[in-house]
């Protein structure tokens, strides 16, 4: 495609980042005067500079100060949360970054032992109280592991995800179990494309830390739930210690650019109250792993890998990430604390 920014011709490649830029350039009301971009660069810091260089390299254009500055601005918006002050539509940025990341993660995520853990899936299904007459809806379903687990015990199970590659994996997974009571949708979660009171159990696993507005998503989950019904959220729980929570979220944003913010258990409880839901029942468990295996299944920028390793090394002395990190031989082992919250509607 060919777009113009401040009368400077920009050629955009046919890649995910190129399509993202094209959508932003085409979005009416955006302030795209590149002459006013450069002064804002200092607000973003080095992470944004690396991200800007990465997006520029992937688009295949070099030597353009205008594009470089605009790429910086895009990632300052995403990382720093300051886009609203400049008229940039953050939802476009977050959606495209998420699709790009999860397209690459579809296969490793679908095959991850932690994600496929039968005991953890059984705990989720049983804790939800799902029975044979229930209709289940999984929000941000990824490769369909949760949908398939529920489909074995309920009447119907439906999944929605923004990433087509994830839905492709979900269909493959359901076919492997010969499940015929499942349905799949590619789409966004705000708003959910279903009428009020469509499902008796509405669940989301390992997705809330990706949502820029988790409260809005929870309200949408409640909207599409029947009365009576159940809302179930499972996600990593950040430490109640603000310093540990900040360190965890900084590390996760480096490891996975689609990460927004992991909430503490208290904050997750608070979402239910703000959404007008009853106080949820709760249970917790740990997803255990080791650092190099975690990195192998992630897609951080190459320059950020040693930074992530150092963050984990620094956490060993005082559990600085809230992940129970320990040195075992030449490995750093870790645990993601997972909380499941279930409320009756």
Brief write-up:
With 345 residues, the protein is an alpha/beta fold. Helices cover 43% and strands 20% of the residues. It is built from 13 helices and 10 strands.
What does this structure look like?
- By secondary structure, this protein is of the alpha/beta class.
- Helices cover 43% and strands 20% of the residues.
- The protein is built from 13 helices and ten strands.
- The strands form two sheets. Strands 3, 4, 5, 6, 7, 8, 9 and 10 form an eight-stranded mixed sheet that branches. Strands 1-2 form a two-stranded antiparallel ribbon.
- Strand 3, helix 7 and strand 4 form a beta-alpha-beta unit.
- Helix 4 runs parallel beside helix 8 and helix 10 runs antiparallel to helix 13.
- The longest helix is centred in the first third of the chain and has 22 residues.
- The radius of gyration is 21 Å and the shape is globular.
- The N terminus is likely disordered.
Shape: globular
Query: Element order, helices and strands?
Result: EEHHHHHHEHEHEEHEHHEHHEE
Mean pLDDT: 79
Binned, the helix content reads 40-55%
Q: State the separation between the terminal residues, measured CA to CA.
A: 48 Å
Q: How large a portion of the residues is in β-strands, by DSSP E?
A: 15-25%
* Alpha-beta content class: alpha/beta
Sheet of most strands: 8 strands, mixed
How many helices? The count is 13
Query: Which runs of at least 5 residues are low in confidence (pLDDT < 50)?
Result: 1-53, 55-98
Q: How many beta strands in the DSSP annotation? A: 10
CA-atom Rg in angstroms: 21 Å
